[in-house]
User: Which sequence fits this backbone?
């Protein structure tokens, strides 16, 4: 039995999880170019050797996880791919104050450098063969997967895309030229709406924060939802929740709304159990990965992933914030509690899957299967 947090309020699963044809692996890739996008953002493109082309083939909306060792500790970060499917993998990065990766990628990495990159992952993906009309809503660096989605689906002449894109000012807009090029190339099939929170626009509706009220007015005026096949959301948690609320109020089906979070700014909620945890209480946690089973003691105040990593350094992870879903595993014995969940859908939770980075062991023995 597992006790888990339900999907976050107002957040829908991105899509059904794709079948796993093999676990994602890290490979050293050479940086082929670094392009300055704004004062605090850059696009980094990787060269893929011929022998790895199939492994690094990606679908629109997927992401890459990068890893590096900092002060003796392995760190990982996931970044959405911003290139159209079929091209070289490229990520867009906005610098975060004191960020372990973002400053390195935007200020220090140069063409010719080698970076450890994991093969593409993620169930946030768009199929260009379906055509249809798509609504994309993004804010800030949330444009990265949207650029991939729009540029890919528009290659189908039966597809159309409307993009609502929120930023502070015109100078903070990532990929401004590429978005303009898409508009020039596809004309009426690509409708682009810039919303600026700190810069006046000629149209009042396009000036201000892209919040629930503004989204409601923009969608009602510009986007006939009856004709929309899929909605794609990417941005901070507040934007995703606002968009989900508005779309629900307007009657759009939740199973056709796909989302990706790039940052969650609230800490995990504290768990309150009926009985206090005794000092030194621990569970025997068994992990199954790539057919190999390992058991180790894990304190009940420590997430399963962190505790098990002391004896299994090969366990998959990326954000450790309950957002990316990389550490997903199935509880096959015992009980855990998740502190937060922004990655798993209701069906996955019901089937016993958890985010091991957020799962605290509850029973004396717990088994989690990463191969499930």
Assistant:
């Amino acid at each position: 039995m597992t006790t888990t947090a339900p999907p976050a309020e107002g957040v829908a699963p991105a899509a059904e999880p794709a079948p796993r044809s093999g676990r994602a692996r890290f490979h050293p890739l050479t940086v082929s170019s670094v392009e300055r996008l704004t004062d605090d953002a850059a696009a980094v493109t990787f060269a893929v050797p011929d022998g790895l082309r199939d492994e690094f083939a990606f679908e629109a909306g997927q992401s890459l996880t990068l890893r590096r060792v900092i002060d003796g500790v392995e760190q990982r970060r996931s970044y959405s791919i911003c290139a159209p499917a079929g091209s070289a993998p490229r990520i867009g990065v906005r610098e975060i104050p004191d960020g372990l990766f973002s400053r390195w990628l935007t200020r220090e990495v140069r063409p010719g450098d080698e970076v450890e990159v994991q093969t593409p992952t993620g169930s946030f993906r768009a199929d260009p063969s379906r055509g249809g009309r798509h609504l994309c809503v993004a804010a800030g660096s949330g444009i990265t997967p949207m650029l991939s989605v729009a540029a890919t689906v528009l290659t189908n002449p039966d597809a159309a895309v409307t993009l609502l894109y929120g930023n502070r000012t015109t100078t903070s807009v990532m990929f401004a030229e590429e978005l303009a090029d898409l508009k020039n190339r596809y004309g009426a099939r690509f409708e682009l709406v810039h919303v600026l929170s700190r810069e006046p626009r000629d149209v009042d509706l396009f000036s201000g924060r892209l919040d629930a009220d503004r989204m409601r007015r923009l969608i009602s005026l510009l986007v006939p939802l009856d004709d929309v096949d899929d909605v794609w959301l990417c941005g901070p948690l507040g934007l995703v929740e606002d968009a989900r609320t508005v779309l629900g109020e307007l009657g759009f089906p939740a199973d056709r709304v796909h989302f990706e979070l790039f940052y969650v700014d609230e800490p995990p909620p504290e768990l309150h159990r009926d009985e206090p945890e005794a000092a030194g209480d621990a569970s025997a946690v068994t992990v199954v990965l790539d057919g190999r089973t390992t058991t180790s003691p894990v304190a009940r105040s420590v997430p399963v992933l962190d505790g098990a990593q002391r004896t299994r350094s090969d366990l998959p992870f990326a954000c450790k914030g309950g957002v990316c879903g990389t550490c997903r595993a199935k509880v096959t014995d015992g009980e855990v509690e998740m502190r937060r969940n922004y990655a798993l859908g209701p069906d996955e939770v019901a089937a016993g899957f958890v985010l091991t980075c957020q799962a605290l062991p509850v029973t004396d023995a717990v088994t989690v299967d990463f191969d499930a």
